Amino acid sequence: MSTLRQLLSWGSETLEKAEVPDSGQDAWMLMEEVFGIEKSYYFLHGTDKIDLDVQKRYEEMIRDRAKRIPVQYLTGKAWFMGYEFLVNSSVLIPRFDTEVLVEETIKHIMPGCRLLDVCTGSGCILLSLLEECKGRISAATGVDISKDALQVAIANRNRMGLTADFRESDLFSDVEGVYDVIVSNPPYIATKELEGLMPEVREHEPILALDGMEDGLYFYREIVAQAGEYLEQGGWLCFEIGYDQGEALKEMMTEAGYGQVKIIKDLAGLDRVAIGQKNNN
Ligand code: GLN
């Protein structure tokens, strides 16, 4: 029988050997999850002997993490905009960088806003916007091509007690009606760049959520070409984009007739968001 303390150092060392980044932090997060404890409990009871069944569960999780399965898929949860979202391997893990898109989109959400999220995945963007703009959004729709992803989005919606319509749709194929704001974080990594990603992403996150085809811009072209039909005059199209895609997006949106197109950078100073307004003509 081991103690919590012994188990945590074993976990941390095992992850370090597997070259897991933040090995100590992940070993602790899994301990927190499996044992349902907080740091204060650990400090008081670190030398207590622990139940063999729970120990085995912890060891299994550490072994999975050593295989580079993201820690969020093991705990089933991820934080985004200060909210806890359920995740599994059918959805992209919400990224901190995507919070910039949410913050910028909020600025265009006026009372009575009808909001559409294309490629909604876990629903993290749509549901955070609903939380942050309480009362200002009159209708919220999230679409995704993946049925499995939609199940996660629906579970998140129900857990947060929010109202949103999630539906299966290949981009706009099953979208109805007109919206004031369309937001999207589509797959935007060029196919040839996928192999350079960390094993956590490359081997475990859904390729469908990452692959932006040949030059990474495929989904922006499609969405820019189709969105006008579903946007109110003066409505806003808000994208997350890759670190070097700002210029391409600015050109693409301007050519398609969007006005006031702006590219916003993230905290690292890289292109992160593109926003444009459907012209009032
Ligand atoms: N909208 C989801 C997110 O931002 C999923 C994005 C995607 O699958 N490309 O996390």
UniProtKB/TrEMBL annotation:
Methyltransferase as UniProt keyword: yes
Entry keyword annotation includes Ubl conjugation: no
Alphabetically ordered keywords of this record: Methyltransferase, S-adenosyl-L-methionine, Transferase
Coiled-coil region(s): none
Binding positions (S-adenosyl-L-methionine): 144, 185
GO biological process: methylation
Domain of life: Bacteria
Boundaries of every Release factor glutamine methyltransferase N-terminal domain copy: 6-76
Catalysed reactions, as listed in the record: L-glutaminyl-[peptide chain release factor] + S-adenosyl-L-methionine = N(5)-methyl-L-glutaminyl-[peptide chain release factor] + S-adenosyl-L-homocysteine + H(+)
Residues that hold substrate according to the record: 185-188
EC code(s) of this entry: 2.1.1.297
Family according to the record: Belongs to the protein N5-glutamine methyltransferase family. PrmC subfamily.
Function description: Methylates the class 1 translation termination release factors RF1/PrfA and RF2/PrfB on the glutamine residue of the universally conserved GGQ motif.
HAMAP family, per the entry: RF_methyltr_PrmC
Protein name: Release factor glutamine methyltransferase
Organism, as annotated: Oliverpabstia intestinalis
